[in-house]
Write a structure and sequence with these properties.
single chain; mainly alpha; Serine Threonine Protein Phosphatase 5, Tetratricopeptide repeat
């Protein structure tokens, strides 16, 4: 999965550290995690190369669209449609279906967070962060949201201090989870590239 190109002065080691985990884990764990901008990753020698998008299965799309039409109150086929478009990197289409799903299931932080990542991929980092805030109002301890919040703060807003605060919350809340381990590696890489970041207060903003 890819994101927009922005400029961020972070060492190549930090890119490889966080992006390597993200690209390696996004298919294995529920929910999605926003990677660093692909253009930056590719610019770093020895950095991880993003996998190509999945080919959209039009038959599956048609089946899910029919299911959504038959079941206007069911969020599930809409989520599955959004996931298909997401994996094919058709983010505008994914946004449409995540929004439809969220209308039917407004208390689902996973759907909300996936919608936020789509906003990030479509050059809307502020809207992405607003959506993450909504997810965190539903579940303040939602590790996947906090991890994504840190990525968007770092790569979408160049707010390294804010990113460190988000990742530290993940470590504090779920240190042994995949998200917690990823956040710790991201923090270690960030502090290595920017020694002054080591003074970040755990869990602070």
């Amino acid at each position: 999965m890819k994101a927009e190109s922005v400029v961020l002065a972070v060492a190549g080691a930090f890119f490889g550290l966080i992006v390597g985990w993200i690209l390696g884990s996004q298919q294995a764990s529920p929910g999605r995690v926003a990677p660093a901008p692909a253009a930056q990753v590719q610019a770093q020698q020895g950095a991880v190369t993003a996998a190509p998008p999945k080919t959209l299965d039009e038959n599956q799309v048609r089946t899910l669209r029919e299911a959504a039409a038959r079941e206007p109150g069911n969020a599930r086929p809409r989520v599955e449609l959004a996931n298909l478009y997401f994996d094919a990197e058709r983010y505008d289409d994914a946004i449409t279906w995540y929004q439809e799903a969220l209308k039917l299931s407004p208390k689902d932080p996973n759907v909300s967070t996936d919608l936020g990542i789509c906003y990030y991929y479509t050059n809307q980092p502020d809207r992405a962060l607003e959506q993450f805030d909504y997810s965190l109002r539903l579940d303040p301890k939602h590790a996947k949201t906090l991890l994504n919040q840190g990525v968007v703060r770092a790569f979408g807003k160049q707010d390294l201090q804010g990113a460190a605060a988000s990742w530290q919350k993940v470590v504090d809340l779920a240190p042994d989870s995949p998200e917690g381990q990823a956040a710790k590696r991201a923090l270690d890489g960030l502090k290595s590239a920017h020694p002054g970041m080591g003074s970040t207060t755990p869990g602070g903003e």
